[in-house]
Amino acid sequence: MTDDSTISAEFSVLPITIPPLPSYPVQATHYIYLRRNAPKIATANDTRSLFLANVPSDSTEAHFRALFTSLVGAGRFESITFEQDKNTAISSPEPAQAARLAALHKKRKREDEETQSAKDEAAARLPDTWARRLHRSGSTAVALLADEKSVDSVLKAVRKLKKSKKYPVWGEGVKDKAPPLGSQWLRAHNKLSYPGNDVVQAAVDAYFTVFNRREEEAVQLAKRLRNEPDEDGFVTVTRGGRAAPARRDEAEEAKKKMLEKQQKKKDDMQNFYRFQLRERRKAEQADLLKRFAEDKKKVQAMKEKRGKFRPET
Spans of biased composition, class Basic and acidic residues (predicted)? Predict the structure, then answer.
């Protein structure tokens, strides 16, 4: 366990009492560090959110609901998002073409279509094999409270704990609201690891339903984007007779040929200009020689006209 001497001053320290367990019959103190949530990309709920660091590994929403209730009373806590929930989100079927084109064009759907799509994607996921997830040591979370006033109340209550030394007991008031750990947890995992054939078949059918729908959306979207240039002014290269865009290697090859053609044209123009320059220099040199010869003839004619010079004695 760490104390508040090793944490930044911007965090408040929330000590909690870990009760003795059969496997470890010693009472311990755990420190949770919290501050106002201030992510790099701001959201509408930042003012009523708290960023928590060093959450216990057995944390659940029920545990934090009971914890905040003991601090500021019921009705202040709404929900919590753990680091694991953000980093290990279950991926849904994402065809290659749909993933590549989704960033180019987004079309708003009707509410009923969005609801149906969410249901299909949820049905496409295999059931979870753990009745309760554990978090890695030192992980983080974001707690959403009712309003900004609730955030102030929590921070104020945390500061008072340091003086009273009466720390909240972790897990107190949870009871049956969270699945148990220990041997029951492992037995539940073993049971959930072998779902029935009907459950697996239903998930597979739902998966391909979502996959086929997204493939169709990708084809329709490719038709609309066939003649639309991208940000750099390039038009997506397509193969004859196919509505979807060409593969990435084909597009790169076409781009390479186009650049080579432009470079060749540029070199030809440069050579053409060099030829003109050489011809102009030759003409200037010939004109210079011609004028020199003419001047030489004039000087000779003047000498012959004036005759031989005889100085006076």
Answer: 246-267
